[in-house]
Amino acid sequence: MNRSVGDYLDAGPGFAEGEVIERIEAFRRRRPRLRDDIVTLAHGAGGKASAALVDAVFVEAFRNPQLESLGDGAVVALPSGERLALSTDSFVVQPLRFPGGSIGHLAIHGTVNDLAMTGAIPSWISAAFVLEEGFPIDELKEIVADMADAAAGAGVAIVTGDTKVVPKGAADGLFITTAGVGAIPVGRELSAASVRPGDKVLLSGSIGDHGMAVMLARGDLELEADIHSDTAAVSELVEVLLAAAPATRWLRDPTRGGVGTVCNELARSANVGIVLDEEPLVVQPMVAGACEMLGIDPLYVANEGKFLAVVAPDEAGAALAALHAHPLGAEAAEVGEVTEQPAATVVLRTPFGGTRIVDMLVGDPLPRIC
């Protein structure tokens, strides 16, 4: 059952409304804690289990200021004063090909987009391949060709790499890991710390296309729909946005965990509220129908060619106009706003005037989507 924000304020006798709000906010600001003894698929889904694993294992071991920001990429300063962004990602999607793309497209687009979310202009990519014994060479050539096409389209060069072969049964055909580097233009600053109440939340297009395309392509479900992945490099679209709205605060591509999880990460990091409006959120009819049949909320379904942007209120109109003028931003919309309360919380406002809290993704509702 969906509950409104007001429902959570009615805590019974002995609690003032302000105290209830404070308790809710304190609870929601807590990072998830790792309670598992073994790794499960949920730890790779991008939700609460992923956050707990990253905090308890990786951040705890490697702690440093760049890592602790937990952004899409690290921003490092060179002795010259210039700043570089670095990002890395592994791709284990099954099937290797799906409507609209392949693991090769994802391997380039995913890293390019992560760099773009830091404000960097992507330039160089490294690629490492783990191949299972028996993998067809012709199929490998096709996937590598997809990577080459995607890199050319994104304006990046694949400049180094590595190849390993493991015995049959030790991998799932092919895994690809890419890392990317790009320079951040002088004066460009994007961070959750810059987000302020009153800022507007923009979404560059429809949601859920990639996750549902991959799920149906696996063939495990007796469900057919003409859904194509949205995989694309959004770096050019980001530059269009930043030219029109130079005071843009923050960017993130809603991949694993979808829009709902990414907005929760922002709300907690910036200690603000995010109020999303359901009506302007674009979900293609076939995606919406498939999600409804499978009992999946599109807000948690992965995208591979979209981004969320938080922009200054006085630049929102110009930002949307610029996005609409680009093919990848034709369906861009203002989908919400940043509020002071309820802090560290995401709320969805329905067309009927009600509200419901949007929590971080729990569990692993989708197959490996990247």
Automatic annotation (TrEMBL):
Pfam families (alphabetical): AIRS, AIRS_C
Gene this protein is translated from: hypE
UniProt domain PurM-like C-terminal: residue ranges: 196-347
Protein name as catalogued: Hydrogenase maturation factor, HypE
InterPro entries: HypE (IPR011854), PurM-like_C_dom (IPR010918), PurM-like_C_sf (IPR036676), PurM-like_N (IPR016188), PurM-like_N_sf (IPR036921)
PurM-like N-terminal domain: residues covered: 72-183
Gene3D superfamilies per the UniProt record, alphabetical: PurM-like C-terminal domain, PurM-like, N-terminal domain
Family: Belongs to the HypE family.
Superkingdom: Bacteria
GO biological process: protein maturation
UniProt organism field: Mycolicibacterium chitae (Mycobacterium chitae)
